[in-house]
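> forwarded from #structure-qc
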């Protein structure tokens, strides 16, 4: 079952959709909030947010899709050019309204904490939100997380590559054309340089949030189109600042043969399967089987 809602909080008026948990499932104490992908309404590309929320509600989660200011049904001013909107989102433009939204949803529904997320720009907003409000955010779902600002990928001459942080980062993380020549032991150099190797186009605000969540052991699920530049750069950043060692709270799902919005190669189904499994595991491990406050368990 779905229902529309409007959140009046501070200077924000936010419109969204509440997907109510199925009566056939136990209601978890953690909710899920999905935000806009870029400049799209809260439905998402090919309705990916709708389908994610429906599946999560069927598994017992209160799932919410929220339009941030100026997007979808929520009033607000937007830049004239899409590129400017994306630049502002990278700078944290949506952090304040997103934070206001989950606080108001907690007050209205008595939900202990939330998984927050979305695709591309909203994945970054979710990271910033989790870093800023750890008491309310139980985890992050980041689809096609973009850890870089817009840049031109210009071929480098051999001389230019010697002085390029981006080239050294690719080389040492196994993503360079000549990485096969680098001894495996050279990877031990990465922790020595760490963030100093990150190129100028790196979104350091998002990387700092990612490092902070890793330090707190906040569960983060990153779902990426396999082998594309967002996934490659995410892997480079993780190896440079988080290390190559796998951590139970850090999950990465690579979806082969799909695109940025998961509309090819069965990408959406694979992404949604991964999100549902991860969310259920988080709820079971972190919150037990207690129902959300104010809501009885389903038979």
């Amino acid at each position: 079952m779905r229902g529309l809602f409007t959140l009046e909080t501070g200077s924000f008026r936010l419109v969204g959709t509440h997907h109510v948990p199925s009566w056939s499932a136990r209601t978890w104490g953690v909710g899920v909030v999905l935000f806009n992908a870029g400049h799209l309404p809260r439905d998402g590309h090919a309705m990916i947010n709708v389908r994610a929320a429906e599946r999560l509600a069927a598994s017992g989660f209160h799932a919410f899709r929220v339009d941030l200011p100026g997007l979808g049904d929520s009033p607000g001013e937007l830049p004239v050019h899409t590129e400017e909107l994306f630049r502002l989102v990278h700078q944290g433009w949506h952090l304040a309204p997103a934070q206001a939204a989950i606080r108001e949803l907690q007050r209205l529904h008595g939900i202990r904490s939330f998984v927050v997320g979305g695709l591309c720009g909203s994945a970054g907003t979710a990271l910033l939100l989790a870093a800023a409000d750890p008491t309310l955010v139980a985890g992050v779902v980041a689809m096609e997380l973009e850890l870089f600002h817009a840049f031109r990928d210009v071929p480098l001459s051999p001389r230019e590559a010697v002085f390029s942080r981006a080239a050294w980062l690719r080389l040492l993380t196994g993503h360079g054309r000549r990485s096969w020549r680098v001894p495996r032991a050279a990877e031990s150099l990465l922790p020595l340089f760490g963030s100093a190797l990150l190129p100028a186009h790196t979104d350091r605000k998002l990387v700092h949030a990612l490092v902070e969540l890793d330090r707190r052991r906040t569960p983060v699920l990153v779902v990426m189109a396999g082998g594309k530049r967002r996934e490659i750069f995410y892997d480079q950043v993780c190896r440079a600042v988080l290390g190559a060692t796998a951590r139970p709270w850090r999950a990465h799902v690579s979806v082969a043969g799909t695109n940025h919005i998961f509309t090819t190669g069965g990408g959406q189904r694979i992404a949604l399967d991964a999100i549902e499994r991860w969310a259920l595991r988080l709820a079971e491990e972190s919150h037990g089987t207690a129902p959300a406050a104010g809501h009885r368990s389903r038979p």
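QC bot note: The chain has two domains: 2-151+201-287, 165-200. Confidence is low (pLDDT under 50) at residues 289-299.
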